[in-house]
Each structure stands twice: as structure tokens, then as C-alpha cells.
Amino acid sequence: MEASAAAVEANEEGGGRRRRRGVEQTSCDLRAGRAAPLPLPVATVAGMRRGPVPVVAFVLALGAAARGGGSGPVTCGSVVKLLNVRHNVRLHSHDVRYGSGSGQQSVTGVSAADDGNSYWRVRGRTAAVCERGQPVRCGQAIRLTHLGTGRNLHSHNFVSPLSGNQEVSAFGEDGEGDYLDDWTVLCSGTYWARDSEVRFQHTSTDVFLSVTGEQYGRPINGQREVHGMATSSQNNYWKVMEGIFMQPGEVFKAEQHHVEL
User: From the centroid of its chain, how far is CA 64?
Assistant: First the structure.
């Protein structure tokens, strides 16, 4: 399990997992103009993982065998890895908390293609249902739930520890968090295609999910900071890589048949 040096400190001999419960404080303002980076995370590393264990085992067993590729749509219920195309790192999380900012579970970028902590499940936005196999439309709001810990990709008005941008974390319990877990898929065309480059814009604060190159030190050397950026740039683009894809439903097939006619 990973932790971070000036940023994350791992407590590998700790007992159980400490969980933060209750309502998240979301009114904290960004500290504008702060030049010095915040201290990096203090963390508890747990030996056990949350989430549906049979699904985790299934995904890890397949490993890199199930690739993105192709021109089909990304569908709800699919489990994917997302690659930042500018910096060649996959969106990653682990049960390690930030030692500054929100203190929630950290999110980073890793270069290893076979890392088991880089799988995310595609779901509908908060309080909405997206049926398994339903293609995700461009402009649709979704949640990305970390398969290993059951927490959702999240952002809010806290400063990220290295770059001073907006913090991105993983939040919630067993896949349920709050409205700050929602991200809008920005792409061209009708649906999010598996072979396309897309951006994810946070629905509440409008920042783009980004990587700009800041790296953590020991003991997670080389892992990149993932954060929210206020402006669109090449640092914002992501592409589906390895994954297990739910087959599109009948509505999508009917639409495609109509287009072909």
C-alpha cells in the first residue's frame, strides 16, 4: 500500500481503518495566492479493502487482458482505468488520507499499467440511476467509484498539497457520498467513446480533473498529484485504457440501427 513523504505518512502497523463519518464541511474557501505547498498526507493504511470483493477479484484476475480500444461507448457499470494522456499516468487511489486540506482519501496518478488500485466503476450521478449497460452521453454527469475502497472521485474548496490547485479526493462510504462526487463528461459526438479523449468537469466547482506533473516523494516516489484546474488545457484529457465493459443496452442498439439506415 502506498503513502507519501512530506505529503503522506503511512502507519503500516495500525489496527483497523479509521473512517471519517458525518457531513463534510464544504464551505472552506481556497487559500488564493498561497505559494508554499501544504504538508502532504498523514495516513492510515488498512490491510482490508472495501467494496464488492468478488468484483475486485474478477478484475484483478483479468488484469490487462481486458483492454479499452474499439469505438464502442463507455457504459454505466463498466470498470475502467483512466489514463491522463499528457502525463501518461492512470487515475489511482488507495486507503491513504491527506495530512492537510480535507484529510480525505488521497487520489494520485501512477505510471504502472498493472496497478490494481487504478480501477473505477462508472455510475450515474448522485441520487440518479444509470442502468447497467446504458451508454454515457457527452455532457452527462456521472460518478466514478474507486473499486478497491468504495469511495467516489470527489472535489471541493480545499487546496491541493503540491500545486496549490483544487484538491481532488475520494469520499463516501460503500459508494455513497454527496453531490460533490458528480463530474460531467465533456466529449464530442453523442456518447463517450472508448477510443476518445475526454475531460471531466466537476459539476459544482467547474474545475477540470487534471495532472500537471508535481510528484510525491518517498515512499510513493513518482506518483503524480491529481487536482482540479480552473482552466481547460492539455493536462485535462483522459482516455479509457484497461477495463471490463458492460454491453450497451437495446435502446443504444436501436439508435445505432436507425443511424445506419
Answer: 19
